[in-house]
Amino acid sequence: MTQAQLAETCGTTKTYISRIENDASDIRLSTIMRIFREGFGKHLNLSVDA
Known about the structure:
Elements: H1 3-10, H2 14-21, H3 29-40
Helix pairs in contact: 1-2, 1-3
């Protein structure tokens, strides 16, 4: 999947996807979850142990 395809599927821009890949942009957890859900059809589970 190209950056452009992923961006279109997730409702964002290719530039934003590129910035995420290159560590040039801070990303919210909700955005990561949306990319996994909408872009890849997967769910992201987060677990924090105390």
